[in-house]
Each structure stands twice: as C-alpha cells, then as structure tokens.
Amino acid sequence: MEVYNSGTALEEQIAATELPEQALALWALGQEGFLVKWKQTKVLFDPYLTNWVHELSGDPWMRAFESPLAPSQCLDVDYVVCSHHHEDHMDKLTLQAIGKSSKTRFIVPKAHLPLVKDWGLRDEQLIGISHGQTLELDGGITLEAFAAKHEQFEQDEAGEHRFLGFAASFGDIRLYHSGDTVGFPELVTWLQSRQVDIALMPINGRDFVRGEQGIVGNCNYREAIEIAVQSHADLLIPMHYGLFPHNDENPAYFVDYIYRHYPAQKFHMFAPGERFIYMK
After folding, report:
1. Domain span holding position 243
2. In sequence order, what are the residues at sequence separation of 6 or more whose Cβ sits closer than 8 angstroms to the Cβ of residue 229?
3. 176, part of any domain
4. What are the two backbone dihedrals, phi and then psi, of residue 155, each rounded to the nearest 5 degrees?
5. Tally of domains in the chain
C-alpha cells in the first residue's frame, strides 16, 4: 500500500496545521493509529509505529507498509492513548521511544499500568483510566472510557477492564475511537447518549480460520456501519485494515454496503499518512 505522506514532510505538515476551534485534523498512521490535532493539542491513539509484532512473532506479521511516522517524530505529542495491550495497539517500542519526551503523558487502561511501568514509563508520565471514567485533559479536552468486547469483556483481578474504547470531546466535536471491539447493544446505547460526530471503527472482522490461529476478532464492515448509523454518527471512519494481509478485510465491501443501504451516511477512507480536516 502506498503511503500518502510520511517522514519529515508529514511531521512538518502536522506542526504547520492551524485550526479554528470548530475543526479537528486527523492523520491515519495505520491499523488503529490516528494522530488528532485540535487547536495546538495533539493526541495520538493506538500508535503502532514500529515492526514490533513481527519481531516478536515472525511471519506472517510483517507490515504491508512502513509507518508514516517514526516514534522519534512524535515527541511533541501531548497525549498517547492506548485502548488495550495487543502489540499493534500498545506497542512497547513506540511507547518507550515517545517516553523520552518530557511533554507526553500516556493514558492506558488501569489493568495495564504495571506492564507499561515495567517497560520503563514513569509514574508521572502515566494516567490510568477505567470503564466509565472521564478525564479532564489539558486544553479543554475530555476523554471518557467505555468497555470494549474484543470478542469478550476481559477484566483483571481488581475488576478493571482490559479492553476500552474512548469518547473524546474536542470543544463541540465528539470523536469515538473504538479500540478493538465487536458490536453489542450497550455500546450503541452509550454512543447514542454521547452524540458522537466522528466514529472510528474496526472492519477486519473475525472468522473460524483466524480464531484457530489465536487472532482475536473485531467488528466486520457491516457491524461497524450499523453501529455508526444506529448511533447517529455524522462521519464514519473505518480502521484496522490494510496493515496485515492475513488479518484483513477488503474495504470495498465496506463502501458497497454503505452505498447500497445507507447512501446518506458520510464516511472517509484514509490512505496511510493522509490528513483529513473535519469541520462542525
């Protein structure tokens, strides 16, 4: 897959992007990685910027395209938000590299705080978050967590959920980053009550073959669309496709389903490294 923009050019574009309060800029970094900029605050969701999964597990976990940004190019990010501990969402090498920044703070499920501390991140850099909790972040941003089913709920001994999704409010713009999840009724109800403008949802799905390989599944394209439509999201952004060919879905099916069933539903498909500006 071709990368739309990368390296120094992308880093410079992010720094130079100036936004009014009613606008949000998003850059797709692959898998579920998105950099979001509102005014001058930058939030990085689920960054997988290395080849750590392949280093751990070998083939077939090689990236289909290089990361648009290196971790060393993200030291000016204000917050890194991780939904759960799978290496393509909570990437040890990426977090350790960004952890050299004196500016960045890391928001992770409380169930995973001991792990990221073992990786060398310091207490003063870390913020744990639980299902149902809302954080007030710098710059007027709020972040609320809701449990995700990746394919099931999982909790640690203290009852902390291991998989989370996030509703983030950037002024009047509300963005939902699902993390890894399948669809379930409580999620739709929760999203309806949050009046989400932008929904970022996985579409790679799940099946028997991948389950036999130990690959935990997500929403398929139909589930992602139905959740967004039932939640009245203004814009749907599909994610979690294109990076690992053996754990993938053809996004053309996503487009076809919207075209046939919900032609008025707005959506945007990213090329890696692409910038998209949402105006409310």
Report:
1. 17-267+275-279
2. 262, 265
3. yes
4. -130, 155
5. 1
40 vs 58: CA distance, rounded Å:
39
d(CA 156, CA 144): 20
Q: Sign (positive/negative) of CA torsion 180, 267, 204, 55? A: negative
Pick the closest to residue 144 from 191, 111, 103 (CA basis): 191
**111-168: per-residue pLDDT in tens?**
999 999 999 999 999 999 999 999 999 999 999 999 999 888 999 999 999 999 999 9
Task: Give residues with Cβ within 8 angstroms of 169, minimum separation 6.
Answer: 141, 142, 143, 144, 175
Euclidean distance between CA atoms 220 and 182, whole angstroms:
8
What token pair was written down for 68? 């648009």
Identify whether 260 is part of a domain. yes
Question: 65-102: string of b/e by CB count within 10 Å (b at 16+)?
Answer: ebbbbbbebbeebbbbbbbbbbbbbbbbbbbebbbebe
The pTM of the full predicted model, rounded to 2 decimals, is 0.95
For 209-225, the pLDDT digits (tens) are 888 888 778 999 999 99
- Whether 4 is covered by a domain: the verdict is no
DSSP 8-state code for residue 104:
-
- Cα angle: 277, vertex 93, 181; to 5 degrees: 55
- 194 neighbors 227 (Cβ within 8 angstroms): no
- Please give the DSSP secondary-structure letter assigned to residue 70: -
CA dihedral for 28, 30, 36, 42, sign (positive or negative): negative
Q: What is the token pair recorded at 182?
A: 């399948």
The CATH number given to whatever domain includes residue 183 is: 3.60.15.10
Domain-embedded: residue 136: yes
In sequence order, what DSSP letters do the residues of 258-280 get, joined into one string? HHHH-TT-EE--PPTT-EEEEE-
Size (the chain), residues? 280
